[in-house]
Amino acid sequence: MRGLFKDQPWLSTIFAALLAAVAVILIAHATGADAIGRAFEDVDPGWIALVAGAQLITYPAYILAYRAVAVIHGHAPLSLPIVSRIVVAGFGPFALDGGFGVDKRMLQAIDEDERSARVRVMALGTLEWAILAPTACITAIVLLAERANILPSLLWPWALAVPPSFALALWASKPRRSRWIAERGGPRLDLLVQMLEGVDGVRCLVTQDPLRKLGAWVGIMVYWAADMAALWAALRTFGMDLSVGRLIIAYSTGYAATRRSLPLGGAGATEALMTFALYWVREPLAPALAAVMLYRLFNFLLIAAPAVIAHRQLPRLISRAAAASRRPPRRSTRPRP
Fold first, then answer.
1. Do the Cβ atoms of 68 and 210 come closer than 8 Å?
2. Domain residues for 146?
């Protein structure tokens, strides 16, 4: 099954769309057809343009962050055509091991180094949460102080778990400590060591030539802001107007595992979790489902075709880049003075 989907990305894309459809149908059935119908009675289509525009911004922003992360630990910069296609392909809903699986395979093909590719993918995932998790943590603390009408069980984990988790990760990821873990644990803890090396890679974005690597932080912040704006515009389309704090908590909870890290672009899981996260911040379930459907139309289904095309173009581009790097420099034909 895995081999079939790997060789036929269109087949896995269709399967992902079916998973998403099943999740939507199950939630709609629990909500009731009448409630869903009423959600579509009062639609303001003017907001749909903002959903589309915000989603278009997410891709160049992520490309900016990706290029900065790809050069950590001394790697050569990736060309814009290659990194653009890797990013677009990674957001496609066809990879059973998620977009990070696409990233790992492509980076390994470029540098012929599986471990280095995996560490940089870990660093990319760490960078995503290095922005989103503290933002959600601070927001949760503020909402708890304000006694906001939100489920406390939604806020307390963000408020309490993020600071010690970050502190522990930063402490353990120091090179001498990760080496100590590698020496004591051997192959059994190799994945943990690679994760810690990924955290250390994000630290390098701050400590080693930070101005040149500022694009990583700017890119990922713009990515998250634009994607949240797309969800907010989808909610406005169906008459909901969340405050910034409630939007951040609902969005962060809905992406407890980001769509790039989930199999098949988060098909099914994201639709369900994002809808119920909106419900947990006291938004009506039926309009929330409708808004999530609109939001996912732009960041899930419409990216499918470009992602498959980009994925098919990558081997040729990578082979051409590898051949160019092995080619000796051309001698100048200009006569010597």
1. no
2. 2-320
In a domain, 329, yes or no: no
Task: Please indicate, yes or no, if residue 26 is contained in any of the structural domains.
Answer: yes
Q: For the beta carbon of residue 180, count every other beta carbon within 10 angstroms.
A: 13
C-alpha 92: how far from its chain's center?
11
Per-residue pLDDT, 4: 36
* Listed residue (98, 66, 45) closest to 259, CA to CA: 98
Buried b (16+ CB within 10 A) or exposed e, 81-119: ebbbbbbbbbbbbbbeebbbbbbbbbbbebbeeeebbbb
Q: Is residue 333 part of a domain?
A: no
For 130-192, give the DSSP string: HHHHHHHHHHHHHHHHTT-SS-HHHHHHHHHHHHHHHHHHHHHTSHHHHHHHHHHHGGGGHHH
Predicted local distance difference test score (pLDDT) of residue 287: 93
pLDDT of residue 38: 83
Count: domains in the chain: 1
Within-domain flag for 155: yes
Residues of the chain with pLDDT below 50 are: 1-5, 329-337
- pLDDT value of residue 335: 44
Torsion of CA 27, 296, 123, 178, to 10 degrees: 0
pLDDT tens digit sequence for 30-58: 888 788 888 888 888 999 999 999 999 99
